[in-house]
Amino acid sequence: MVAVSSPGSLRSLHPLHAILLAFPLPLFLGALASDLAYRSSLHVQWANFSSWLIAGGLVGGGFALLWALVNLFRRGTARKGRLVAYFLVLLVMWVLGLANAFVHAKDAWATMPEGLYLSAVTTLLALVAAWIGYSGFRTGELP
Question: Domain segments of the chain: what residues?
Fold first, then answer.
């Protein structure tokens, strides 16, 4: 039996896309926690942890962004607003994450407070992207 989706039904992410989208939020959140730990303790290793966590978030987020771009052009023109919003949030998250990586490439003392602020913003954007991505997209297409 073939299930037909109604025009208002929700369509979830492809499982591989969902796995890729799962990387940025915990990694950017970990970088934010490491920045907070560095701010309070001034141990340089916390800044190094942040750099590595940001790099991991950029890799996972980059593949999720690429997948979102392909979905943006693959889908029909009907109800593309949510796809565009999802793609734009991922794009801004990735660009600010890249800027954060450049800030964290400096001396550990020089990363504060810009690195902390960028980590907070990228974490918030990763949360918004995950929220949009995992809540599903409205579609009128057949599954």
Answer: 22-136
